[in-house]
Design brief:
By secondary structure, the chain is α/β, with parallel strands linked by helices. It has 12 helices and 11 strands. Helix 4 runs parallel beside helix 5. The two termini are about 30 Å apart.
């Protein structure tokens, strides 16, 4: 796969891809991230896994690594409770920055991190840059919904999106749904307070008009009660609403299973009921198993970037590496750039020209190029996903 600043091609990659893993990010760090990445590497020998982190930290976990795994030394890590703008300014050799630079230099095709969400997004924008025609990248997530998950975006990148932003999220989410999740002609909807077109604030109304003018399979609005009814494959909203939705889903599912556990442990009848219902409960648990989702793609940047849950353990890391590899293999960033060019929202030479937000390779993150603004302006999310 070519580096993000090389010529774009939407043809899927033949053969293996290279995934850079922020091996020391997240709540659990290397003891969980590295085994998860190694599990993927053993199951997919055609791909290359690049573990980024301090050599001394990684050494105990890579003694029996397969031949398609290598390490890249980084001396620093951005902690989960650090202020991301300040941390990225001060820690020029942070593992997330080193991983992003591998993609920038064409030495990796994708990045996955379980580290600080804000730092991951800021590092992606400042090191890789936005695709031409993309005003703001969007963080997407796969949500439980019927027989298969749906894509919800934005869930944390932009708390003040415009109608134009929402229309771009719809395009990017549809490409991810089709190319990574395998959904044929995904149904796209806006999350609003009513199903009828025209319901919602001025942004929703403006986005409705914009999306109506595209070739997307746009079905209009959906309400919160429709999210689990499999009415849409891609649901678009601003980051504040999106983040509230995913946090509510997480809390409600945990609450329901806690109630069931208390009932089943409440006496002899409860224990007998559990024995009878155990197969059904296991099937329900699999539906709510968020670890298989792997992580959230940051759509709209010039590279495949996956941000997984800060609490991710090895199983979720393995699935996250799979999503990163598939995103790179299917050239999702290039497909998004191509779609934007075909809509006339990006120049024809978008793939070859440097982006205004993209700083030179040797430029510190705190001195990004024109239009990028200060790091604090890029870090707009406190999402912990």
């Amino acid at each position: 796969m070519t580096a993000p600043d090389g010529p774009a091609s939407s043809a899927p990659v033949r053969g293996g891809v290279r995934v850079a893993v922020d091996a020391v990010g997240g709540d659990h760090g290397a003891p969980e991230v590295v085994p998860g990445a190694l599990a993927y590497a053993r199951a997919h020998p055609e791909d290359t896994i690049i573990l980024v982190g301090p050599d001394a930290v990684l050494a105990p976990y890579v003694r029996d690594r397969p031949g398609n795994v290598r390490t890249v030394h980084a001396t620093e890590v951005v902690g989960m409770h650090e202020q991301p703008a300040l941390a990225l300014r001060e820690k020029k050799d942070a593992s997330i920055l080193v991983a992003m630079d591998l993609v920038r230099k064409g030495e990796a095709d994708a990045v996955i991190t379980a580290g600080h969400t804000g730092a991951g997004m800021a590092a992606a924008v400042l090191r890789l840059g936005r695709l031409r025609g993309v005003d703001r990248p969007a963080l997407a997530v796969q949500m439980v919904g019927g027989d298969r998950p749906f894509v919800l975006l934005d869930i944390g990148a932009n708390p003040d999106s415009t109608a134009e932003n929402l229309a771009q999220y719809a395009r990017m989410g549809a490409i991810f749904s089709e190319r990574v999740l395998g959904v044929d002609r995904p149904r796209v909807a806006l999350l609003s307070i009513g199903e009828e077109k025209g319901k919602g604030d001025a942004r929703i109304q403006g986005a409705t008009e914009l999306i109506d003018g595209t070739d997307l399979n746009f079905i209009g609005n959906v309400e919160g009660k429709d999210l689990t009814a499999q009415m849409a494959d891609v649901v678009v909203c601003d980051a504040v609403l999106g983040n509230v939705v995913i946090k509510f889903f997480e809390g409600l599912s945990g609450f329901i299973f806690d109630l069931l556990r208390a009932e089943f442990q409440g006496g002899l009848r409860g224990r007998l009921a559990y024995l009878l219902l155990r197969p059904s409960i296991s099937r329900i648990r699999r539906i709510f198993d968020y670890e298989v989702v792997g992580g959230s793609p940051l759509l709209g940047v010039r590279g495949a970037v996956i941000i997984t849950h800060g609490r991710a353990r090895r199983r979720m890391i393995e699935h996250g590496v799979r999503v990163a590899a598939t995103t790179a293999r299917e050239r999702v960033p290039e497909r998004i750039a191509e779609a934007l060019r075909s809509q006339g929202t990006a120049p024809a030479d978008a793939a070859d020209a440097p982006h205004a937000d993209e700083p030179p390779a040797a430029t510190p993150a705190s001195t990004a190029g024109p239009g990028a603004g200060d790091l604090a302006d890029v870090v707009t999310s406190d999402s912990t996903f």
